[in-house]
């Protein structure tokens, strides 16, 4: 492909007075800005007010650090806490919740509500993600199928949301974090795939806009231009 | 308060077996409802409207679906005989490997099982590679969780009884004792655990069932 390696080391500090201060905490995120899974972790870290160093990966030329820290899948996101890697976004978020217990709990304390949160996150990981990929990656009939499936999944999610402001109830939490980066995809799909959620899932659109008002979310998600650039890059990579 | 625990399952589902083991390890009393997959009960469809599958755990009327989610629910609700470590990093590691079993390892072995000829030959290396990865996790340990069984052992435990069935049906030896000495030892250790030993579906029945499944796949390329 001929692109030069692009590893940008950016340092982000979110400083909050109530942040848990204790032993030296080195937190690094191996990141890729357009990845919805990496976005989840950025949102979770921001919600908790955790200081961390961000290392942006070039997926066409993965860093030795990424290969070492995620030897099984070689994928982002990876959270490296005091030198130890944690992989898989929903596992990372549960880890963050376990370690930084005080600030903004992300999972409910009730076992049954926790189970529901895990169930829906797993659903988003498989169904929403797979159908979303179809819309990104294919054309014609396959893309149409992807769009139809997404509407079907969103309707199920709307039932689960009900009249609550967030999936977590009064509080923004695990399922909200899991879904909102994909919600961001839906906004982008409007531009190139004629995908309109407002008519079919108005409650979910309201929920999405509510989430976007949170600073942790708006600062963690790529905008349309960034999505489009990533979309072109990804297509190029696949055509290699 | 009186506890009512029900498990919707089939006699052979390896996912349901995980829940049986977890409930028995923790000494939880429960009622079993066996489902006929070709004729699912209205209750199952009501309790798992999204996937319409077993297993489903119903605790005091509240349903939980997806076996790994159910295992975590059981762990959160009944604290005796913990299946997950206390340390957050070790918990994350256990969750990672349980997910690996479901997302990568099981599908790669299944792919070998439902194919033949060239397609099967091409599927084998990935299954072996995934088995190698999990073999490494057993270094210096009796079980994936250490001295006693835990989440990953339960997630992967179906291997203990099903692998010999799959090998018999396909005529292939996937878990070679020479190449996978730790997995071999683990399977033996697992089969010695009382709860596991007492709750394995009958071998002959499994062979017939999986023989039929493989034949269906080879004939039509799709499950019935």
Give an overview of the whole structure.
The complex is a heterodimer of chains A (240) and B (224). By secondary structure, chain A is of the alpha+beta class. Chain A has two domains: 5-99, Glutaredoxin (3-Layer(aba) Sandwich), CATH 3.40.30; 111-237, Glutathione S-transferase Yfyf (Class Pi), Chain A, domain 2 (Up-down Bundle), CATH 1.20.1050.10. Chain A contains ten helices and five strands, in the order E-E-H-E-H-E-E-H-H-H-H-H-H-H-H. Chain A has helices at residues 36-48, 64-69, 89-99, 111-137, 140-161, 174-193, 197-200, 202-212, 215-218, 224-238, and strands at 8-12, 27-31, 52-56, 78-81, 84-87. A five-stranded mixed beta sheet of chain A has the order 1-3-2-4-5, covered by helices on one side. In chain A, helix 1 packs across helix 6, helix 4 (111-137) packs parallel to helix 6 (174-193) and helix 6 (174-193) crosses helix 8. Chain A is globular and about 50 Å long. Chain A starts with 7 loop residues before the first strand and ends with a helix. Chain B is α+β, with helices and mostly antiparallel strands. Chain B folds into two domains: 5-77, Glutaredoxin (3-Layer(aba) Sandwich), CATH 3.40.30; 88-220, Glutathione S-transferase Yfyf (Class Pi), Chain A, domain 2, CATH 1.20.1050. Chain B has helices spanning 14-25, 42-47, 67-77, 88-113, 117-136, 151-156, 158-170, 181-192, 194-197, 203-220; strands at 5-9, 31-34, 56-59, 62-65. The longest helix of chain B has 26 residues, at 88-113. Chain B is globular and about 55 Å long. Classes of the chains: A alpha+beta (240), B alpha+beta (224). Chains A and B meet through strand 5, helix 3 and helix 4 of A and strand 4, helix 3 and helix 4 of B.
